[in-house]
Amino acid sequence: MAVNxxxxxxxxxxxxxxxxxxxxxxMLSIAAVLAVYPFVVMSSSSSAPEIVPPGGSHNGENVEQPxxxxxxxxxxxxxxxxxYCHTYARRSKVAGIPxxxxxxxxxxxxxxxxxxxxxxxEYWEQKSPPPWKKVHDVPDFVHxxxxxxxxxxxxxxxxxxxxxxxxxxxxxxxxxxxxxxxxVKPLNMGWCKTCHINNGGPGDCWACHK
Amino acid sequence: xxxxxxxxxFLKIMGLGGAGTALGGCDLPSTVTLEEGKEEVVSYxxxxxxxxxxxxVWYASTCAQCAAGCGIHGRVREGRVLKLEGNPDSxxxxxxxxxxxxxxxxxxxxxxxxxxxxxxxxxxxxAVSWEKAVGAIQEKLSAANGDQVAxxxxxxxxxxxxxxxxxxxxxxxxxxxIHEPINASVWQAVNKDMLGExxxxxxxxxxxxxxxxxxxxLGTWISPVHFSGEYAKFRKQxxxxxxxxxxxxMSLTGANSDLWIPAIPGTEGVIALGxxxxxxxxxxxxxSSLPASVQGLINKYDAATTAKIxxxxxxxxxxxxxxxxxxxxxxxxxxxxxxGQAKGYASVAAVMLLNQLLGNIGQTIESQGSxxxxxxxxxxxxxxxxxxxxxxxxxxxxxxxxxxxxxxxxTAPKAMEMxxxxxxxxxxxxxxxxxxxxxxxxxxxxxxxxxxxxxxxHVAAYQPQQxxxxxxxxxxxxxxxxxxxxxxxxxxxxKVAKKDVYSAFADYYAYLKNAHAxxxxxxxxxxxxxxxxxxxxxxxxxxxxxxxSMSLPVKPxxxxxxxxxxxxxxxxxxxxxxxxxxxxxxxxxxxxxIQEAPDQITKVVWDSWAEIHPLTAQKLGxxxxxxxxxxxxxxxxxxxxxxxxxIHPDVIAIPMGQxxxxxxxYAKGRGANPLKLLxxxxxxxxxxxxxxxxxxxxxxxxxKEVVVRLGASDTQAGRRFVVTVPxxxxxxxxxx
Lengths: 210, 736
Description:
Chain A has 10 helices and 1 strand, in the order ααααααβαααα. Chain A has 210 residues and is mainly alpha-helical. Chain A folds into 2 domains: 2-45, no CATH class; 71-97 and 132-208, no CATH class. In chain A, helix 5 packs across helix 6. The two termini of chain A are 38 Å apart. Chain B is an alpha/beta fold. Chain B is globular.
């Protein structure tokens, strides 16, 4: 009963509002001006919608990995593209940890005197890939796909693929200056959603929760 | 908007009642974190060329959740099977599967899988190695008299059936007991006598009308997914097919009917003869070719006599006869309630007689044609083998029995004394994925691989328009290294029993591949190597088989009066151990998805319950949710009462499948097993167990609990979600 009464009250209030037409008129015209304004400003500055990289920060834990993999040596010092190793990123929901055979492709001959490479070689010879620990994770009820994000931010933009690390950095931070990866962005729903709003990503619940 | 208090943030904070935390919608450091560095993410050592992590690959196989043999596709990702769907290439199920098929992954990943072989030592089953388990079996086999070795299985077909037959043959035994509580055995026996073919092809899609006497072809009858597809075609005809169902308790098929008539189990044969009487007397159908005894029966059951015995309005019987004549060709079917009587054969024969009188044979009932590979044909069974097994065991004529794919200790009525019969078998081997009741009583338990990890071929007893051998291949590596495929287990037995023939095959895979290569040339595309043809068969999931065309010669069958002899005694109500798609005979009680899926009619989940008509309940002082005792001559079940109008007032039904004493964490100790209450009545002609011939009484206890069901209200509370019309108006405007 209590609920019914309240409903009744609010609906009569709504009626009252609707009757004051002049107020609605004023509000509508303000809204119209507000809606057109950013459009005018944007279309004067550039034709393509601007990409707004996500902000935010997160102080991730230091995750101990079976081998302290130096991203900096690979990316910064030797200029290897992220997608050379994380090769599935453009084709699948997961970026993929590189298969051990790919590591060995180079490290059969390169830096074989380093203890980390010797440890890698041990794994290879025992035919068991290193048990890497997952750093960037979303809950199981979230469907995140690398493929769609790379399409939106790299391939659809004609963004030079050799600079793809700048796009990866949106979510993974400055990996080229890290050894093992370190979580530096919150990767929670609000954070994702903000970026989706800023960059025109899908807003339906089922786009991610399916 | 980074932490600055502007007007909007100020309002938001106020909205939260002044709490200082902002919603995650802004770029503020969040308090929501996931564990970092806890989960492992392991890469491939060397990736296969076609594998992309995160992208699924679909492989074809065959469903083994019931005996219908639907083709399936399984999505495999990172070496794990994740989702099952129907195989669109299979003319059995055309890309569809039912809830039992969907929950196959829960059987496969079930935490209660048996992981190692077990051997009974000092009264207890203890984990042993395969060598020790197989050694114990071989020791008993070599000591046993060959004809005292038996197999006790569910429906088997394809090369698995061939291997089991060959094993028995090699030992000099003919004892293969086949048991399926949900079957069409009596119907098959009648067909065999009347048409010369036990399992004719049914053309639901060509029928103008289907009259089903309790044949739940959309739920539990023979090949439900296939029939559902054909039923859709039946309904989509230019003149929409008309479905009339006569049964004691509403089934899924009954719920889909245009007209549903509740009948006392056992009176269906009389109703069929009543309709036959109308066809002959009022619609000039010819009965001159029928035996005199049958003609006598047709003459006997005029509308008034039929109405009196069956408790159905005379006009209904006349109307159904009219409709059958008007809508030709039609199809008349008989299911479990008709079969499950002492006079089940006569009742089914009376129902099939209608097809004969109406000229449906050759129209909607066709021959399946001759299947060229006799050894691969399905070996189906019903319940008669329960009786013969118990008798043979008690006569101490069985020394070693292998159990696979069936659970007689659970499904046999208590009065049959299956427990003591099992005790009379000195050495029992159970090949099983789970510790069910029968496996718990075994002396050796061999852990079977799941059907998603195993090789096989299947030839379902009921074949659609395109007959096929359905291929079963592993969709992933075995979850548990110690489990073994059924084919491999039997092959290993044969390597000992018939060494000269079978020692050539390394494993069951090699045996199957060899058998496929031995198929006649027309089974391979021109220019294909054996290896290519094998890959093509696996890729498609089936090998189409050309069957020789055959006609159905109708032979007159004489049968006795199907009228039930009234012998209820002090038990007033007819008892129906009802079956439903999902729980089936209880084999799926250990799958949480199936437990949680509501019963199609009552919408109750998980537990056991008794379905009672509200009028009957009122008479007995039973309310919805009352805990009641349902008592038969042989036992009592304590269950919750669920009042439902979709049941005959003289019937009390308890769905079968629950009441497991073993069978894992999800099934054990849940509900009651109605099969235990049954009287061990034999069907007079076929020797099947008459499952619908038991009488019971029901009495309330002082307890009452909430009925857990989906959509618990029968009314729409005036909200008109579903627009309805009164029956009188519908009859006035739509006929029937």
